[in-house]
Amino acid sequence: MEEAKRLSGVGKSVIRELFDLAQGKGNVINLGIGEPDFDTPENIKEAAIRALRENKTHYTPNPGIIELREAICEKYSSEYGLDYDPDEVVVTVGACEAMYDVIQAYVNPGDEVIIPDPGFAYYSAYVKLAQGVPVRAKCFEEDEFVLKPEQVQEKITDKTKMILINSPSNPTGAVMGKKEIRGIVELAEDNEIILVSDEVYEKIVYDATHYCAAQFSHDGGVIVVNSFSKTYAMTGWRVGYAIGRRDLISPVALVHQYSVANANSIAQYAALEALRGPQDFVREVVREYRKRRDILIRELRKHGIKSNKPEGAFYLFPNIGEDSREFSRKAINAGVAVVPGEEFGEVGKNNIRISYATSVDNLIKGAEILGKVYREGT
Ligand SMILES: Cc1ncc(COP(=O)(O)O)c(C=O)c1O
């Protein structure tokens, strides 16, 4: 049976292929993972257990329980001075669903969506599923992979429907400054393009400041996508959200309603506790990530690999001077899994994404092996 045309160009990811290869090998140090290695904090787990005991096991309102949407609005008000109403929030099955819904709600066949290169691989898949056209705006290594408004401007045509930004970035860890975010928000407004800002790593920042793109919007034409996955080590719970001006969010809520009805009820109560409960966990893990980032950069350098020093997320994106898939295959055979930069776009064809969401011991051993693979290839 012929599959639907919207699936064309949406293939199995190389990441999967490499990890299948790694699984068969045993003893491979995994520096390819895109999730925190910490467990969900106890208070959050307890809130879920309580919700279960209290039989909060029924359908919830489609956009999510009101308490959670109120807590999300309070967060945006206290952290960014933004005034949202609970009707302007849709609680989704992770940021993945939020992103999928937003794209389904706005992108028609043939519409162009500007996405960063390198950028999270799911973006172009979502655009293709809507039969839109992903257009890549380059983030250059010499700019520390920060997306510049000029690069976005160059890609705007009369077919551009949406611009998607992501700071801190997966895969580079780059954090966009005020100037860049403001510049891109203004470009979107001047050209009547929807701006979607994926801010799932907002709390994992080091010496930089995270700005919410909606802070720079004059007309509220920004949809922010966020998640509990990375901040609270809740990847498996699958809770995220989209937040934006009522008229912009309501088509998103419709896609959400007919695709999943609502996010898991128990997980929504857990997410509520994540926002309302103590935030020490977040501070502690960010301190730990920073320590690991510095150790990994030092160890890589010791073994001949020079890396970028990102201000956010938990990835490095060093240039390894050769085809990234080839290098990653060799690395797996040598005992360490990393993700080829090519997976995230053309700019990363000679880079690898190394995750430091793992133990210091793994980072030290992994860096040594990567150094060996690197030296043998040069
Ligand atoms: C940039 C980015 N956006 C979205 C997601 C998806 O997050 P969630 O677990 O909330 O679906 C990820 C996960 O890796 C990510 O790196």
Strand coverage percent: 5-15%
Can you say what the CATH homologous superfamily of the largest domain is? Type I PLP-dependent aspartate aminotransferase-like (Major domain)
Mean pLDDT: 96
The helix-and-strand class reads: alpha/beta
Q: What is the class of the largest domain in the CATH system?
A: Alpha Beta
User: How many strands in all?
Assistant: 12
Cα distance spanning the termini: 47 Å
Rg: 20 Å
Bound molecules: pyridoxal-5'-phosphate
* CATH architecture term of the largest domain: 3-Layer(aba) Sandwich
Largest sheet: 7 strands, mixed
Poorly predicted runs are none
Topology order in helix (H) and strand (E) letters: HEHHEHEHEHEHEEEHHHEHEEEH
Estimate the global geometry from the Cα principal axes.
globular
Which labels suit this protein?
alpha/beta, Aspartate Aminotransferase, domain 1, Aspartate Aminotransferase, domain 2, 2 domains, 12 helices, 12 strands, globular, binds pyridoxal-5'-phosphate
What does this protein structure show overall?
With 378 residues, the protein is of the alpha/beta class. The protein folds into two domains: 5-40 and 280-377, Aspartate Aminotransferase, domain 1; 42-276, 3-Layer(aba) Sandwich (Aspartate Aminotransferase, domain 2). The protein is 42% helix and 13% strand. The chain is built from twelve helices and twelve strands. It has helices at residues 14-23, 42-53, 66-80, 94-106, 122-129, 149-155, 178-190, 246-260, 265-276, 280-302, 324-334, 360-377, and strands at 29-30, 89-92, 112-117, 133-138, 160-166, 194-198, 222-227, 240-243, 315-316, 336-337, 339-340, 352-355. The strands form three sheets. It has a seven-stranded mixed sheet with strand order 2-8-7-6-5-3-4, sandwiched between helices. It has a three-stranded antiparallel sheet with strand order 9-12-11. A two-stranded parallel sheet has the order 1-10. Helix 1 runs parallel beside helix 11, helix 4 runs parallel beside helix 5 (122-129) and helix 11 (324-334) packs across helix 12. The N and C termini lie far apart (47 Å). The model has no long low-confidence stretch (mean pLDDT 96).
